[in-house]
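Open question from group meeting: does this chain pack into something compact, or does most of it stay loose? Before anyone orders reagents, we agreed to write out a predicted structure and look at it together. Recording both the input and the output here so the notebook holds the full record.
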Amino acid sequence: MEHRYFGASDKQFPILGFGAQRIVDEHQCTEEEAIRIVNRAIDEGITYFDTAPSYSDGQSEERLGKALGHRRSDVWIATKTHDRTRDGSWRLLEASLNRLQTDRVDEWRLHNLVTMDDLEQCFAKGGAMEAMLEAKEQGIIKAISVSGHTNPEVQLEAIERFPFDSALVALSAADHFIYSFAHEFVPRAVEKGVAVIGMKVMALGKLAPWYEQALRYTFSLPVATTIIGMETMEQLEKNLAIAKRFRPMSDTEQLDFLKEIIHLATPDVLRWKASEWMSGEWYRRD
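Structure tokens returned:
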């Protein structure tokens, strides 16, 4: 697989990253199968693993921890805090470390900042940013990150306020048409040396009929890696095959693809950008 630099650092990752949200009972993935899938991914060169304490009440982190075992040093783990306070974030991190069976995480994210008020809470006195800076100073985390699905202006403001190492943002082809992170956020992030990590690639399954085109679209952007949620070995193998034969989309190919899917640019499909989802329960949908 093609490898790319993680922002301004000398760290590199393959273009396909592993979204661990779905290796849980909720998605009909058993613990035994989860362990097999994670180890197969590592065997095939995947080193970037993304999870969060809110995914199935910690089961995603727990299974990832069990799967990694002695291979912990072979991978990069990113987890998150959906709490906007210092103390609440510390509690989440301590629980994450326990479930992941590790004494450190490589990357810790502010989970899905939807509004400017979310951002203000994190940067306020006693806010989540205090926990992040303390954890980095103590060597518990390496990289500080931010994520978002909804309004690129929030993440743009975030990277202007603080030199975040990375940003996890919605970069499906369907996101191209409205509140586009690809248009509004990615160029500035790249300019500032912030690693861009793509997510929501399949648009909650709506892009399944254009599966390889959907992955190629996001891989073709200046992303450090792209996380794909996988709950079966079949999905993993399919994604690996596409990543290994990846070639960037030409402008003509991208235009033809976007013409085919423009009808999907609706609130029902792009629910992460719809007003009824701006309710504070967003982090459960990462």
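Observations to bring back to the group:
The beta strands are 3-5, 12-14, 16-19, 48-50, 76-81, 105-110, 141-148, 166-170, 195-199, 225-229.
The CA atoms of residues 110 and 146 lie 5 Å apart.
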